[in-house]
Design brief:
Blueprint lengths: L3 E5 L4 E4 L2 E4 L5 E5 L6 E3 L12 H14 L5 H17 L3 H15 L3 H9 L2 H12 L1
Antiparallel strand pairs: 1-4, 2-3, 2-5
Helix pairs in contact: 1-2, 1-4, 2-3, 3-4
């Protein structure tokens, strides 16, 4: 059985299968026993206005799928296209590995796994964009 353990801080919110759940005043731990549950920490969520870079757009697409509010083949296709575009641009070994794994997660329809991999690219993207702006 697949299990996911969420460690939540005080008053932290999480979206589970479309329901927003808020933790109490103390840290707590929740074990999710249902496989393929759609789970998103709201502190990690990207607002639509913040999806303004290539990696953030890919993360946002994965987040939409993960929220459980949108389940369409076309959105999975858009996410795959975005990841492939990133793979053409970010050709270093680490990025290539992450993006190849993200493509595998998309093939498995694992939005959480894809988002987790893509989020690792955010610091690199920020550094590249900062260099470009100088």
């Amino acid at each position: 059985m697949s299990r996911l353990v969420l460690k939540l801080g005080p008053k932290e919110r999480v979206l589970i299968n479309g329901a927003v759940i808020e933790n109490g005043d103390r840290r707590s731990k929740i074990t999710v026993l249902t496989s393929n549950a759609n789970i998103l920490r709201l502190k990690d969520a990207i607002h639509p206005d913040e999806a303004n870079t290539p990696v953030r757009r890919a993360c946002y697409l994965a987040q939409l799928l993960l929220s459980g509010e949108v389940e369409s083949a076309s959105l999975w296709d858009r996410l795959l296209g975005q990841v492939r575009t990133l793979a053409d641009i970010l050709s270093d070994t680490h990025s290539s590995t992450l993006l190849l794994q993200a493509q595998g997660a998309i093939a498995d329809r694992n939005a959480y796994g894809c988002l987790k991999l893509l989020r690792q690219l955010l610091p690199l993207e920020a550094r590249l964009l900062a260099l470009h702006q100088e």
